[in-house]
Amino acid sequence: MQLQGDGPMTLAVINGNNQQQMRGVARVQGDVPENADLKTLVGNGYLVITISPEEGERYQGVVGLEGDTLAACLEDYFMRSEQLPTRLFIRTGEVDGQPAAGGMLLQVLPAQDAQTNDFEHLATLTETIKAEELFTLSATDVLWRLYHEEEVTVYDPQAVEFKCTCSRERCAGALKTLPDEEIDSIMAEDGEIDMHCDYCGTHYVFNSMDIAEIRNNASPADPQVH
């Protein structure tokens, strides 16, 4: 998912997979007002959702940032691009003096023939969730709190974790695509090439011996530097 705009936050990217492994980065220019809303933060822009299935072709949906919140923009995307009734409930705040965030996604499954009244009923129930409940209660307790009078199926939970896909090998592969004269110019000026991952902050440093190995189709063995 990407947010792009002409505001102080020019770009925000979140990558995730079906194993609940996530990574993200945001690029900010200038000062961001305290308690800035989405319009102030991103300005005029758009939301891009790219899905790469294990089988089949990659596809992409683009919608303008017309909602007042990120949740509203995502709901708009699902309705326009996927034709799926969707509500996203995001809560932010603090727990023990530390920033906290939580959320719930309510969506009709593609294979289900749900009635509009049923979905709106569940959305009304979900709107009552409080920030402190999302921050402090277990998922099972939240479901009981909201839907104890409904028929609910609970699946095994999946842990969400940060995981970056960068590697020294991928950086070496990127260097192989650059013209030799460009690499030689950087090496002459800096004595090494330092490649930085914006997602996790890892630095991959390549010296002249590494560059020679890359040109000989070998894998440089120097360790990464954090």
Automatic annotation (TrEMBL):
<keyword id="KW-0143">Chaperone</keyword>
<dbReference type="GO" id="GO:0051082">
    <property type="term" value="F:unfolded protein binding"/>
</dbReference>
<protein>
    <submittedName>
        <fullName>Disulfide bond chaperones of the HSP33 family</fullName>
    </submittedName>
</protein>
<dbReference type="InterPro" id="IPR016153">
    <property type="entry name" value="Heat_shock_Hsp33_N"/>
</dbReference>
<keyword id="KW-0676">Redox-active center</keyword>
<keyword id="KW-0963">Cytoplasm</keyword>
<dbReference type="Pfam" id="PF01430">
    <property type="entry name" value="HSP33"/>
</dbReference>
<dbReference type="GO" id="GO:0042026">
    <property type="term" value="P:protein refolding"/>
</dbReference>
<dbReference type="InterPro" id="IPR023212">
    <property type="entry name" value="Hsp33_helix_hairpin_bin_dom_sf"/>
</dbReference>
<dbReference type="InterPro" id="IPR016154">
    <property type="entry name" value="Heat_shock_Hsp33_C"/>
</dbReference>
<dbReference type="GO" id="GO:0044183">
    <property type="term" value="F:protein folding chaperone"/>
</dbReference>
<dbReference type="GO" id="GO:0005737">
    <property type="term" value="C:cytoplasm"/>
</dbReference>
<keyword id="KW-0862">Zinc</keyword>
<dbReference type="InterPro" id="IPR000397">
    <property type="entry name" value="Heat_shock_Hsp33"/>
</dbReference>
<keyword id="KW-1015">Disulfide bond</keyword>
